[in-house]
Specification:
The complex is a heterodimer of chains A (345) and B (260). With 345 residues, chain A is an alpha+beta fold. Chain A is built from nine helices and 20 strands. Chain A starts with a strand and ends with a strand. By secondary structure, chain B is an all-alpha fold. Chain B is globular, with a radius of gyration of 22 Å. Classes of the chains: A alpha+beta (345), B mainly alpha (260).
Amino acid sequence: MIAIRGLTIDLRDFHLRDINLEIAENEFFILMGPTGAGKTVLLEAIVGLIPIKNGAISIDGRDITALPPEKRGISIVYQDYALFPHLTVLDNITYGLHFHKIDKRKAQGRLAKLLEVLNLSHLQHRLPTNLSGGEKQRVSVARALMVEPKVLLLDEPLSALDPGFREEVRGSLKKLHQTSSITFLMVTHDFSEALSLAGRAAVMNNGRIEQVGEIEDIFKRPNSAFVADFVGMKNLFHAEFKGTKALVSDLEIELGVTPPNSHGYIAIRPEDIVISRRRFSSSMRNAFPAVVTAVIDQGFYYEVRAQSGEVGFASLITKSSLIELKLRETSDVFVSFKATAVHFF
Amino acid sequence: MKREPFFWVSISCGIVIMAFILLPLIQLLTSPSVGMLRESIGDRDVVRSIWLSIYTAGLAALISFVFGTPLAYLLARYDFRGKRLVEGIIDLPIAIPHPVVGIAILSVAGKNHFFGQILAELGVRIMGSVTGIVTVLTFVGIPFYLNAAKAGFEAVSPRLERVSRSLGASMFGTFVRITFPLAWRSMLIGIIMCSARAISEFGAVVIVAYHPMIAPVLIYERFEAYGLKYSQPVAVWLVSISLILFLLLRILTLHKVEEQ
């Protein structure tokens, strides 16, 4: 679908180096990375807003590198909505129709569907200034989809929103993705967004792509120190939720609260996991017997990997605790963590 | 509460400055009798010179608008080597003494300059012609249009244009549908500032074209020939026109502040 080959860009403030990326049709692809990694530059290069030094971008096998933005059929949604302030919600959404030859009835149908899915019908005649952040972003998504693009690019569309609205817009995005054949490419730095929306993802750093793959793989098997440090979630498990408990293969993990969905992911930061020789009799609600499978020197800390049944945990401990506990491979230990240390999404 | 002396110094200075600006203007506006005003507006020379002032200033603003808009847009949107230099050159006409502007333009348009020779071949006369007046007025007025329009374009987020492009609009289509509707007020302010500046020009015009006579030159001539009393009625008419322009400008800028 989208194929990017050897893309190199040199701007005064940003650069991209030899970007290679392939995204399949109707995929929901996530781009992650720290600020200044070049995520927005990559999106704007795909839309055709930035001069490219080297490389090629093609869509459905057609090279679009030399096409101006208006001929590419790619829509973009920005974090700050970028709504046209002098046009009503309706005129914003139908803006692209001026430049596309679309059958009137078909356009009407599409408009009605977008207004309904994004819950915008009652706002049609308002000006953007009077809308809430969530409403603005829904308008911006509707405007982008109205021209039926082949690809929809989203540049941190949810990060400027209040948590309540974020959930709502995220839900709408998921629904729109599932009911259309459009390919979604979204930049985010929120891992729960990435996990709940995406199939595959890429992590960018300093103008390069560090890792591409299944989203779970990136979190569980980072292939560089940078990605490992960036995602920082070594203990990521697929889980079924039952009441306040998460079932991860044969372990029952206490969450303290009831998650809204019936299944999803849980994650625990390695520094939140305590390794001990004897069962901890403290406030830790979760303690499981395990066997140490690896002890890895990480400079100031040691990473201890411990297997409990089918579930492998990673924990960070200091050198002195390592010596005190006399830990080595095959040692029997307990893995403990608080219910509040478990993140779920 | 007892105010500091500095407060009273500030107030006094303010009053002095207000009086300094308003007193001469009020005196000017109230000196001629209604009869004299009516008589002077019946004078064909006066009417002709005021019309000439209005339409040469208007033409200067129009030329600035047509040729200045693309440049203002370019300066607002793109960074390039030498941009500061270009911006400096644009402000140059503001800093040059007005008679020097006239002399400079004449020296290019004269018979000794190849450009003047081309103009002569084409039958264009600068010296003592309406063309000359418009040329001079455009020269002194265009910086005001360029700067106002540029500020207006800069206030429009480039992201809006980018979104418009991605939705299928060409660069020109984007300008017409997005940039212009959002920046027209600044452009209009620029046009008004440019024409206000042009209508008040004397020094440069008097060098290039004493005849045909624009209003400031006529006022000067009447003052020289007949004295203060005879120059005042024409001056009142000219000031009134300038004030109308000024009022328009204030109304537009006030609206702009409210919108933000």
